[in-house]
């Protein structure tokens, strides 16, 4: 009887063992699956070792690549044509236009050394040139972009000085323009070299397809650098532009009011022309550069995660679009430059029939002081028209040179 019970007990024991083996097997399989998932995640490609990498979908990367490709082509073409016209017509190289040439050179350098890398990264969906290429890209973009930005404010100051200050000799005006060009490069180097030397740093940002100053770092050194960059390289140049262009506009308006008594339509047209120029220039500056500064300050001083990684790509593209807008705003809207450009497109070797320079001193305009009396003796309406209307026209035209 005992032997019979022992025989029955063996199958039961085997059944329990079999059940335990199945449970352990399931647990072991789950563990392997879990480890396998972790391994596959850890071995996935990391674009640029950026925490925001992969934040964009494939469609987002494609959209960014299309926009950057358009900026690349139009920026190179527009700035190359600008420099070609200036080389073809030496008479256009006035003191003010030397700063415009400097803007075109810096924009062209951005298109050649910066935009192609971010375009290729957007096509592939990840950064391609490693950490050293990322730092090089960040430094070049910051340097050339800052040269263009500072030159825009110096251009406004040069126009303001040429219009509203006492006249200077031609050589002194050219010397001042060359000093402004050199100062724009030295000033830009002063603010773009520190991240290479330890004050903040250059690295991936956003979705990992662009590199710039590390805005997301919250150390005291990084925050102090970003604050100084915002104040001295964005806010102060903007204030200088506001002051200079508003002074020019007030000067034109003061003279135009006197002309309005004789020729109201001409005065209104001239005033609206200068107003349009001022609005377009300041708006272009704000549109291209202010979003970048605001996002950088929010990323550095705001709550963590207040700026999604994908959102930081928009200000970067807007800043790069300045390389396309600047040739149109500062050069192609210039009547004298447009005339020379059309002659060059017609393959004409002759100088345009209309004078490129209103005076014989290579574009040096006589200053107009809005507060001084244009004519102190009683004159007839016809002579007043001859005195005032050319003054307003010179003010308006000088805003273009």
UniProtKB/TrEMBL annotation:
Name assigned to this protein: (Atlantic silverside) hypothetical protein
Residue ranges annotated for the G-protein coupled receptors family 1 profile domain, each copy included: 78-330
Record PANTHER family: OPSIN
Family: Belongs to the G-protein coupled receptor 1 family.
Annotated Pfam families: 7tm_1
Domain of life where this protein originates: Eukaryota
Lineage: Eukaryota, Metazoa, Chordata, Craniata, Vertebrata
Keyword Transmembrane helix: yes
Compositionally biased residues, Polar residues: 377-387
Transmembrane regions: 64-86, 98-121, 136-157, 177-197, 224-252, 273-292, 312-333
Region (Disordered): 365-387
Species of provenance: Menidia menidia
Keywords: Chromophore, Disulfide bond, G-protein coupled receptor, Glycoprotein, Membrane, Photoreceptor protein, Receptor, Retinal protein, Sensory transduction, Transducer, Transmembrane, Transmembrane helix
Gene Ontology annotations of biological process type: phototransduction; visual perception
MF terms in GO: G protein-coupled receptor activity; photoreceptor activity
Bilayer topology annotation: Multi-pass membrane protein
GO cellular component, one term: membrane
Compartments, as annotated in UniProt: Membrane
């Amino acid at each position: 009887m005992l032997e019979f019970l022992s025989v029955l007990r063996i199958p039961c024991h085997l059944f329990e063992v079999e059940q335990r083996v199945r449970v352990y097997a399931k647990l072991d399989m789950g563990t392997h699956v879990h480890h396998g998932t972790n391994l596959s995640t850890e071995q996935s490609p990391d674009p640029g070792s950026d925490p925001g990498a992969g934040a964009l979908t494939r469609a987002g990367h494609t959209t960014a690549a299309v926009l950057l490709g358009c900026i690349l082509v139009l920026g190179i073409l527009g700035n190359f044509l600008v420099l070609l016209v200036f080389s073809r017509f030496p008479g256009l190289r006035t003191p003010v236009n030397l700063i415009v040439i400097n803007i075109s050179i810096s924009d062209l350098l951005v298109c050649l050394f910066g935009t192609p890398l971010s375009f290729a990264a957007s096509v592939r969906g990840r950064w391609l040139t490693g950490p050293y290429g990322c730092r090089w890209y960040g430094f070049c973009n910051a340097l050339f972009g800052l040269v263009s930005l500072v030159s825009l404010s110096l251009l406004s100051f040069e126009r303001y000085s040429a219009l509203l200050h006492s006249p200077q000799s031609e050589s002194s005006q050219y010397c001042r323009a060359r000093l402004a060009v050199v100062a724009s490069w030295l000033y830009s180097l002063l603010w773009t070299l520190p991240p290479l030397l330890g004050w903040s740093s250059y690295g991936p940002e956003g979705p990992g397809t662009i590199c710039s100053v590390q805005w997301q770092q919250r150390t005291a050194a990084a925050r102090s650098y970003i604050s100084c960059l915002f104040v001295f390289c964005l806010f102060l140049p903007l204030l200088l532009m506001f002051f200079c262009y508003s002074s020019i506009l007030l000067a034109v308006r003061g003279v135009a009011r006197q002309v309005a008594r004789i020729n109201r339509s001409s005065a209104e047209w001239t005033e609206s022309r200068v107003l349009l120029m001022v609005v377009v220039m300041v708006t272009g500056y704000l549109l291209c550069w202010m979003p970048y500064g605001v996002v950088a300050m929010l990323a550095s001083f705001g709550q963590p995660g207040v700026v999604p990684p994908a959102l930081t790509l928009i200000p970067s593209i807007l800043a790069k679009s300045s390389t396309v807008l600047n040739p149109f705003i500062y050069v192609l809207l210039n009547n004298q430059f447009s005339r020379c450009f059309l002659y060059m497109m017609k393959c004409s070797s002759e100088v345009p029939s209309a004078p490129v320079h209103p005076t014989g001193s290579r574009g040096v305009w006589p200053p107009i002081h809005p507060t001084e009396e244009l004519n102190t003796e009683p004159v007839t309406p016809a002579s007043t028209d001859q005195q005032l209307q050319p003054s307003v026209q010179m003010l308006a035209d000088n805003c273009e040179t």
